Amino acid sequence: xxxxxxxxxxxxLPNWFRDALGRAPxxxxxxxxxxxxxxxxxxxxxxxxxxxxxxxxAQKLTTFGCGKDEEIRVSDxxxxxxxxxxxxxxxxxxxxxxxxxxxxxxxxxxxxxxSQSSTLSQLAEFAERNGVQFRSETISEQFExxxxxxxxxxxxxxxxxxxxxxxxxx
Length: 170
Fold this sequence. Notes:
Blueprint: H1 5-11, H2 15-23, E1 27-28, E2 34-39, E3 42-46, E4 50-51, E5 56-65, E6 67-76, E7 81-86, H3 120-129, E8 134-138, H4 156-161
Antiparallel strand pairs: 1-2, 2-3, 3-5, 4-5, 5-6, 6-7, 7-8
């Protein structure tokens, strides 16, 4: 969940903090890592992109605003499709701070147990069976709500691992 300006105001974040979030430059690193994407209402960081064979790549994103929310975005570099799997509260809030985590469905028996035969449809079916919320879109739609100067390259993982794929050319 991305926290809106009103949600941040309700959290009581001081103006200097919101201003600092808005001025911090976005930085990028190896394996498509990034920090400080977003705007003064929320900021997002992306971990390293992982390739799972076939044409799938995945990246964990963490968004900070009035709380902390995690999600995993899995892209199919051949089709240009992307599915975002949203974290859950794993049973409830911690210290009454809004948060979500992917720890409940990530790991050895979870969502990221992918193989070369995995498809986005199979992963979405797994999510549905296990109560994990998700959204389907295209790679090019990813990060559309981020300001241009603080928007990560949506197709970075495809360019890195599958440079000849259609997804790398978006």
